[in-house]
Amino acid sequence: MMEKIKNTIESAINENDKHLERIRRSKRLLGNFFPLTVESFQDLSEEQIEHIDQFIYRFTKLQDAMGMRLLPSIYAWFENDSRAIPFLDILNRLEQLEIIDNVSTWQFFRNLRNNLAHDYPESLDQTVDTLNLLFSEIETLEAMYIKICEIWNSRNHSG
After folding, report:
1. Which structural domain, as residue segments, surrounds residue 102?
2. DSSP element (H, E) containing 45
3. Which of 37, 47, 116, 147 is the most buried (most CB within 10 A)?
4. What are the average pLDDT values for consecutive 10-residue runs of the chain, which has 159 residues?
5. Can you tell me the distance from the alpha carbon of 87 to that of 45, in angstroms, rounded to the nearest whole number?
């Protein structure tokens, strides 16, 4: 069982590394356009919109892969417990183990993701605000992910 968990962690890290690489690239390409206003958002070119779409997509994929695969598997590995337990319990235990800094950071990004998933034309102000917040705070999620990887590599990865 532990070998399967280890393989899931390694696979999730490989997947997330790709998402993070593409987040960084799209952020570099978008750097001159942020912070956005409603007006500047409406004036973006198709190419710039594609970069924003890529940024959102990769952020969503990173968070999904962390939430569905990496964090539950890290929990299972460190606790030697592969039972299905509520995700909030996993987060709380990972915080106690100092693998993540705090649960509220995860929930903050989950809320941003949910805001972006419900993209309504009449709420352009909210979309712009959410994009600006994500753009300015994405390094916090990146730092969370990197810390998890460093802990995994330093404590439990051989080879």
Report:
1. 2-156
2. none
3. 116
4. 93 97 95 94 94 95 96 96 94 97 96 84 86 97 97 76
5. 39
